[in-house]
């Protein structure tokens, strides 16, 4: 059995636009054979789902989650392509799951592209200062900052966060799985999280 490396997973992801976990699974199933893994994903419909993610999602629904103590609530707009899909059980389940995840994980942004440049710049400066304090060599600081910025995205961007019910899957992978199942693009448009302090 061939060893499945991170580079192989990245290559398959670049070729298919499918999530990392699904790419790894495909490579394991196909004993590391890249071409077979591409076919495997195509058969599973995941590569098709990634293509669907480019289509316009102008229909959808609002979802709410109110925590049992009634002091924490989330309002989420999840969009799809047709009104028909907006009424399906799968779409509604996904909406409720994402709203509940937002309540628990408290993301600040939807995706990395939404993080303002000044916030990123500030974060980078703090990370580089910490790395200097730790005695890391100056030429390594950029690389260290890059790695830790990815960690920042994982903690603060909804799509990059690990799904609270299954930390092996990111929210973006959960959405792609549902795009594959449902056959339409699905987009988190916006959300608001409200909390009564104290």
UniProtKB/TrEMBL annotation:
It is found in: Cytoplasm. GO terms for molecular function: translation elongation factor activity. Its main location: cytoplasm. CDD domains: UBA_EF-Ts. Residues 52-177 form the Translation elongation factor EFTs/EF1B dimerisation domain. InterPro entries: EF-Ts_dimer_sf, Transl_elong_EFTs/EF1B, Transl_elong_EFTs/EF1B_dimer, Transl_elong_Ts_CS, UBA-like_sf. The keyword Protein biosynthesis applies. This is Elongation factor Ts. It comes from Cloacibacillus porcorum. The gene is tsf.
